Every structure is written in C-alpha cells, then in structure tokens.
Amino acid sequence: MQLYSTNNKAQTATLKEAVIQGLAADGGLFMPTEIPKLPEEFFQKTHSFQEISFEVAKTLLQDSIPEDDLKTIIDEAINFDAPLVNIHDNINSLELFHGPTLAFKDFGARFMAKLMQYFIEPGEKITILAATSGDTGSAVAQGFLNIPGIKVFLLYPSGKVSRIQEQQLTTIGQNVTALEVEGTFDDCQAMVKEAFNNEELKNRIKLSSANSINIARLIPQTFYYFYAYSKIKNPLVFSVPSGNLGNLTAGLIAKKMGLPVKRFLAVSNANDSFPLYITTGKYKAKPSVTTISNAMDVGNPSNFARILALYDNDITKIREDIWAKSYSDESTRRTIYEVSNNYDYILDPHGAVAYLGLTEYLKDDKETPGIFLETAHPAKFMDVVEPMAKVPIKTPERLAECLKKPKKSIKISNTFEDLKTFLLNVKLD
Known about the structure:
The protein is an alpha/beta fold. The chain contains 20 helices and 14 strands. The strands form 3 sheets. A 6-stranded mixed beta sheet has the order 4-5-13-10-11-12, with helices on both faces. Strands 9-6-7-8-14 form a 5-stranded parallel beta sheet, sandwiched between helices.
C-alpha cells in the first residue's frame, strides 16, 4: 500500500511511514494512492465481523502486512460487536459503543495501537499527540496503554467535555498524560498540527498522531460500514454524525471499495462548516461553538482535505454522494425525548443528530433502509440525556469505576509555545 499527501500527490509513503509519521512532511494528510474494489462475491456471502474486517483490510492494505500478522491485529483489536438495532420502520441504529471506552473511537484507536506496536522498532521511542473533543482521548489512551516505547499526550478543551469523558481522559495514568487546554477543540487540533510542522520538535522528539489525521484511525472505521450492510444486503443510506469528518471519510472510502450505498448524510450540530460547503459550494472554517453533542464541536474539520482528494475537488461529484444538514441543540433534546417516549430507545446527543437527519432524508422514501451511527453510550452524556429521556440510565461498570478515581491533568494555555515548552522539558523515558 502506497499513500500520498493531500498537499502534494508526488510525495508518497509506505503504510509504516504514514502510520508512524501521522502527517506528511508538507503538512498534508495521507491518502491511499489506490483504493481497490472488493470482489462481487464478497457481498453475497455471510461473514463474521472479524472476517469482514480482515477481508476489507487485506484488500485495502494489499501486501503491506503478512496475512497472518494482519489477522492477529484484527482479532485483537476488533474483539467486540457493533449491533444493528431496528428502531422503527426502515430506521436502524448501528451501535458503535460496545468497546472498552463505550465510543466508536475504540475501533480506530485499538487498531492503530496494534498497528503501531507492530511497526515500532526495538528500543524506539514515540510520542503520541492527540487532540480530543471528548471520546478520542480515552479510546487512544486505552488503546496505547502500557505499550513499550510509546508516550501519549492528550490535549482536551477545558470545560468543554462531559464529566464522564473528562474522568476517562484524566484517570488513566501510566504512559498517558492529559493536557487540559484553556481553549477549544480547534485550538487543541491546531496545536497538534503545528507541533508536527515544528523543526525543533521534530529534531528532538519522534512525534506521531492518534487523531483521525492518522490514516490508521480511518482504516478500521470502514469495517463496520461493510458489517452493517451485511445485515441488510440492500443499497442503503448512512447517516453520520459529523465533526472532524473522519467517520464520514471512512464511509466514503468503503463506497469506493464497492460498498452499495445510495447516499451518505453528513449531519452536524451548530458547527456547520461542512453542511454550508455542501449547500453553497464554498468552504469557510469557523470558530467552533459549544453544543451538547460536543464530539462534533469542530469548526475546521481536518478530514475535509481527504474528502476533496477523494473527489478531485469536484463539488458536483461530492453532492452526488453526500447530503448534509445541521441541527440545533433544541432539536437534539426534543429528539432524545421523542425516541425514548415513542420507541423505548435511548439516543446519545450525537446519535440523536444523526437520527434527525436520517428521518428527514427518508421522509419521502419509505423503501430505502436507513442506518444512523450511534457513536457513544448515552451514559457518557448523563446530564443531557437522562432529563430528556425521562427514564433512569444505568452507568456501565467501566464508566462508574473511572468516576471514583482522582482527576489528574496538566493545565496549559492554548498557545503552541506552551505545548512546545512542555514537550521539550517533559521526561519521555
């Protein structure tokens, strides 16, 4: 598998180089030079989740990893389910919160950690930087916990993640450090990107990223699109709660590999940079605003560059595959109440936004099956969900345990210089 930089197609890298580096040297994001299609017979057979994941990874990665090693990585990383639950009519929820940290980020973080562990040389030391708007941080922390030679630093916006999310981020310890940034997620993301472009840091520290800017995060996110399709085996519509656009990009890659999808719905909260682009054809990054679906509080999504690369910057082609809309917190709260009251199903705020988009899009199409991505367990947003659902929500034991532990974080400002000073002075051994 060869990959190119979204800033310069002539700049290429192997899978190992792309995974370890995170970003290309010119600041671009890595994309596959070729996206091979799966054979038609693959879609006709019945496979387990792990079998589907292996076949998709083997096809996409080509000969980058021996098959036996790849199978081991898949079996160890993707060892939990993603159930498809019918809510009503042709509306289905793809539950992606059954992993260790109860969020869809577990798929990408665990696969990436296993892949990086496979590629890292004996005695090599790598510093992982990850910006998180909530769920990425804890998934990355659990994925990389106690892997020899790897230190993890999580940057999260102070006061802008849920209490449970913050407890998950700040109580890991070991080789994981939480950096509480006095700013927004966009600030955290910008600081991480600047770190990768800073020559002094690059000369002193071997940096890598665990955000969806790293291609290793996106590869396993393609798996569950194929798995969901295998349960229905009809061309369908996927509604994707969209913030940094990594989940959407993974779905688009799956479509390029032959997945029969009629359309993707990119559904956002008030942070509507991408829906406005789809509507107007003009992209403008905006300062992020705080909402109850905080994992989507992204004003300048990184993976926008990958979507442009997939479609050669052709807005007409993008619109053929993607419909987009944003919804308010008020609509999100009302949806949580209505779905709980009418269908006895509890949505988290991100799944509620995706449900809204799917029901609106399919209003005039009663035949096409629709799937919305339920990306986190509702207990992670207890303060928002429980008052609206009007039913008690049980906190899973793994979440309850982290609530008992003391928070440990290091506060820094939202300036790159503070991050740089910290990284140059922290003990990395």
